Amino acid sequence: MLSVSAFAQQYKYHIVEQGETVESVARKYNVTTEEIFKLNPDARNGIRSQSKLVVPLGNAVKEDVDNDKEVEFKTHRVKRKETLFSLSQEYNVEIEDIKRFNKHLYSEELRRGERIRIPVSLQKVIEVATEVPNEKFQTDESPQNPLNLSAKEHVVLPKEGKYGISRKYNITIEELNRLNPGVDELRPGMVLKVSNGATEKVIEVDGGLFKYYLVEPQETLFSLTRELGISKDSLIGLNPALAEGLKAGMVLKIPNLETTGVEVSYSADEDIVNLEQRISNFDTREIVVMLPFKLDQIQSTDTTTNARAQIKRDKVLQISLDFYSGVMMAIDSAKTLGLSTNVRVFDTKQDVSEVNHIINTNNFSGVDAVIGPILQSTAEAAAGKLRDRGIPVVSPLTKKEAGGMDNFYQTRPTDEMLTDIMISYLKENSAGKNFVIIADASSSAKRQKLMASLPGARALNPGGSQVNRNEVASALVKGRPNWVILEGSSIGVLSNATSYLNSLADDYDITLFTTNKTNSFESDNISHRHLSKLHFHFPSVDKEYSKDRENYFISSYMKKYDVVPNTYAVRGFDVTYDILLRLATAESLAESMKEELTTEYVENKFSYGETPSGGFLNRAIYIMAYDDNLELKVIR
Questions:
Q1: Among 214, 229, 334, 359, which is disulfide-ready with 339 (CB 3.0 to 4.6 Å)?
Q2: Based on the structure, what is the number of domains in the chain?
Q3: Residue limits of the LysM domain (predicted)?
Q4: Which neighbouring-strand residues pair with 291?
């Protein structure tokens, strides 16, 4: 029999003896059969002699109390959104003890307004939950273990995955795999090593965007900036404690230049906040998802083949299905953190009247957030209808501000914001640059805005769909960086300009920019090799995740759907996961917005600010650029 500890709950392997049943084992350890089934799902089909069961051990006073007079109780009236977990935390008692004196809670959920008995006299004998290091391993506080990671063992619970376990112990999935070789699939009851104190000097964290670095004796800020290839300001921005001086043994967070390809300038207010480490509210959340599935049209088709053909033809429906798959993956991921979500899904049919009908004919009381609809008109209709009730409507894809609605949460920055952030970047880095603006007829307003922001820039006006090669060459300057800004939607102009600039790049230092990467840039007529050679820069709402870098969401999605998630599936995950985590750090979504902070997930970053007309708008924008290997990198 092996006894291990995980978060102060003791477990044992019990070897089943001849004639034993789950019920007899439960009585022996003074636990319920349901607790055994949770840890051993296969036991529902029966147990065999000599098989192993993971059994939770009771507390010091876990014998049944048959006489209520031996226990002091407090009557509690259940309030809205209270759970057994929140009550156990409030009264410092075990969930099992609450159930033991309120038998109906073994099979029923808490009901608002009902009165239950809390065994308050058991408080004195219940241990406070703490993590207990396994005695087989000792904490290594040597310089080789800068993060002071204690070695522990963890019993895998039902539905737990490697991602959730790695987050619990603040280690990477790679380290978890290294500590447990050969463990590909987790099963309830498995005992995993979760740390062994052997940590490298530089540890990759945050999906490869950052690393931890251990400061050694005699190192200085100057030597670190030279060795790590980052500026002093960036180093202090990521590590505010450096303002008080550098000390040997400090663990610094540094950007992973091998991943980003360039140094990114960070300031303290740009630090990414990990909301998983701030969870304080475990109340079950009520989420409504509104998307235009158009089920009435799909169901009216006579064959599966026709239904598939209709889905392929309908771009909005494809987006909805992809986005929905990401939403459900986010809800599953939140479960691994102990966050429960009740979800209701409605088909808006891409119709404002249908949105109004859904809200009028369904109970929206207690809803914490509505995710969707995805179109501007239906999203604004939902927000307007729910405004008086104060229910947040989270718009995942709309590009325009919805003025006058304080319950409208726009997750996508506007196109104007993308333009402004790119122009700001150009202005900040204008010293010594020769600016050339190439804008087609549809971008005359953009050309004027650029000329006003970049005095001295030379503007070229293409005739029709052609760019004059001689004009382009004469506008460039040898011996100086030539920053060419290409604006327009004409595929002819874009293709012509990028081709000419590529042919001149061997003789001139050319970098290509745009303030608005239209769909025309994705045309097959425009060579991505040309864009790569010109180090094409553009503003973006999202970044492109690396398909060869391990990511829990990506790998889980591919395992479930046997396909790589597209940008809409990733956005569904990122938007939903962020909303669930924000709700887990406050009483409401509006409350969570009082602290302006920045979060980041697979492809998307969120930094909400209140708009003058009401509501909240995500202001987080990336500046992306191609490197020489045709890969996109985050520049800012």
A1: 334
A2: 5
A3: 12-55, 74-118, 211-254
A4: 347
For residue 126, pLDDT over 50 is answered with no
Condensed to tens digits (0 to 9), the pLDDT of residues 531-548 reads: 999 999 999 999 876 654
Shared domain check, 351 and 337: yes
Q: Is the pLDDT of residue 157 over 80?
A: no
Domain that includes residue 97, residue range: 68-125
Same domain, 292 and 305: yes
| 409 and 424 fall within a common domain | no
- Side-chain half-sphere exposure of 33, counting CA atoms within 13 A: 12
290 and 369 assigned to the same domain: yes
Check whether residue 82 and residue 35 sit in a common domain.
no
User: Where on the phi/psi map is residue 515: left (φ > 0), alpha (ψ -120 to 50), or beta?
Assistant: alpha
Whether the Cβ atoms of residue 503 and residue 481 lie closer than 8 Å to each other:
no
Q: Are residues 263 and 180 part of one domain?
A: yes
Does 63 reside within a domain?
Answer: no
Q: What are phi and psi of 627, to 5 degrees?
A: -100, -175
Contact 537, 635 (CB under 8 A): yes
Mean pLDDT over each residue of the chain, to the nearest integer: 78
Phi, psi of 615 (to 5 degrees): 90, 180
Cis, peptide link before residue 373, omega less than 30° from 0: yes
Q: Is the pLDDT of residue 6 over 80?
A: no
For 429-472, what is each residue's pLDDT tens digit? 888 899 999 988 888 888 899 999 898 899 988 876 678 888 88
Q: Are strands 52-56 and 434-439 parallel, antiparallel or unpaired?
A: unpaired
Listed residue (543, 266, 539) closest to 426, CA to CA:
539
Secondary structure (DSSP) of 151-213: -EEEEPPTT--HHHHHHHTT--HHHHHHHSTT--S--TT-EEEEE-S---SEEEEGGGTEEEE
